[in-house]
């Protein structure tokens, strides 16, 4: 089951609301304690033993997050698909599908940017807060640049995991939205040859006025096992292609004049 975007939105917000340790109430006794140097040396020794493991952990997880990020970006197509070679803007059915596809694509891109911006803001707020705490604690315990770097890496790892999850969820939604386009293209390519021949014959017999009436469209749709809209689209595309062929050949006929020789070679 796909995780809803609302879940990942809450995760992004949670990063900005992560509990941050407040400044410890160190007393003057601690600062003046004769054991302070020994405690600091023990703390430094402990840190040096732990750092290789922390560095390895951060490196492995940051690399894994970046690899996943690249994979998701490669899987997400940021351009319109290749439409059928016979696609024309006057094909209302495919034109509507293309319009919906592009609108959906734009919405998904805007969603990704919105969540990225929110996540980046919350992650940076958390980092700034942690840096502030570390700076205040520097006068009590030994903290160096690596400690700041480790803290940032941990936040970056968590933020990138949420970012990747958001992208995966949006990509899944986007892939599902493309199914209608694929279905329409498949149906168009799978018209039976017998059905297409019926349409070609009707067109050839009505060259002087290849505009079937509503009654004829219904009749042809029933004979060809198609919808009346598909029949209408087929005739619209056929007229447009023939008109383009006529202009390409430069035969000088008017738009309303039939192309008898051209049609006869195709349909007889």
Q: Give the topology string: H per helix, E per strand.
A: HHHHHHHHHH
Largest sheet: none
Shape: rod-shaped
Number of strands: 0
Give the total of domains: 2
Distance between the termini: 55 Å
Amount of beta strand: under 5%
Estimated helix fraction: over 70%
Q: Count the helices. How many?
A: 10
**Uncertain parts:** 20-25, 254-268
In round numbers, the mean pLDDT is: 75
Oligomeric state, counting identical vs distinct chains:
single chain
Indicate the structural class: mainly alpha
Query: What's the Cα radius of gyration?
Result: 33 Å
Write the layout of secondary structure elements.
Elements: H1 5-16, H2 28-31, H3 36-75, H4 92-137, H5 145-177, H6 179-189, H7 193-205, H8 214-224, H9 228-249, H10 260-267
Helix pairs in contact: 1-4, 1-5, 3-5, 4-5, 4-6, 8-9
Structure in words:
This protein has 268 residues and is mainly α. It folds into 2 domains: 181 residues, no CATH class; 76 residues, Orthogonal Bundle (Arc Repressor Mutant, subunit A), CATH 1.10.10. 75% of the residues lie in helices and 0% in strands. Helix 1 runs antiparallel to helix 5, helix 4 runs antiparallel to helix 5 and helix 4 runs antiparallel to helix 6. The longest helix has 46 residues.
Would you kindly provide a brief summary of this structure?
With 268 residues, the protein is mostly helical. The chain has helices at 5-16, 28-31, 36-75, 92-137, 145-177, 179-189, 193-205, 214-224, 228-249, 260-267. It folds into 2 domains: 5-185, no CATH class; 192-267, Homeodomain-like (Arc Repressor Mutant, subunit A, Orthogonal Bundle), CATH 1.10.10.60.
């Amino acid at each position: 089951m796909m995780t809803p975007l609302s879940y990942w939105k809450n995760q992004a917000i949670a990063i900005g609301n992560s509990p941050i340790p407040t400044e410890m109430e160190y007393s003057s006794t601690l600062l003046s304690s004769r054991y302070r140097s020994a405690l600091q040396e023990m703390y430094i020794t402990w840190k040096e033993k732990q750092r290789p493991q922390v560095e390895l952990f951060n490196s492995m997880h940051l690399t894994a997050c970046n690899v996943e990020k690249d994979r998701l970006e490669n899987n997400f197509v940021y351009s319109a698909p290749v439409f059928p070679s016979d696609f024309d803007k006057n094909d209302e059915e495919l034109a509507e599908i293309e319009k919906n596809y592009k609108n959906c694509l734009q919405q998904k891109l805007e969603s990704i940017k919105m969540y990225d911006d929110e996540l980046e803001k919350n992650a940076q707020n958390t980092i700034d807060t942690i840096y502030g705490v570390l700076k205040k604690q520097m006068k009590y315990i030994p903290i160096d640049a690596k400690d700041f770097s480790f803290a940032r890496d941990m936040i970056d790892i968590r933020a990138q995991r949420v970012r990747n999850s958001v992208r995966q969820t949006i990509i899944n939604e986007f892939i599902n939205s493309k199914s209608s386009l694929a279905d329409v293209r498949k149906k168009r390519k799978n018209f039976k040859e017998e059905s297409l021949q019926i349409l070609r014959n009707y067109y050839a017999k009505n060259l002087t006025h290849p505009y079937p009436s509503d009654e004829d469209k219904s009749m042809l749709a029933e004979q060809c096992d198609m919808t009346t809209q598909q029949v209408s689209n087929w005739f619209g595309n056929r007229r447009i292609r023939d008109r383009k062929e006529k202009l390409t050949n430069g035969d000088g006929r008017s738009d309303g004049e039939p192309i008898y020789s051209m049609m006869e070679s195709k349909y007889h």
